[in-house]
Amino acid sequence: MNKNNAVFVFAKAQLSAFLGGVIDYGVMIFCTEVLGVYYPISIALGGIIGAIFNFSVNRYWTFKTGKTSWAPVGAQLVRFIFVVAGSIFLKSTGTYLFTNWLKINYKFSRIIVDIIVSLGFNYLLQTYWVFRKKPI
Question: In this structure, how many other beta carbons lie within 10 angstroms of the beta carbon of residue 109?
Answer without folding.
Answer: 22
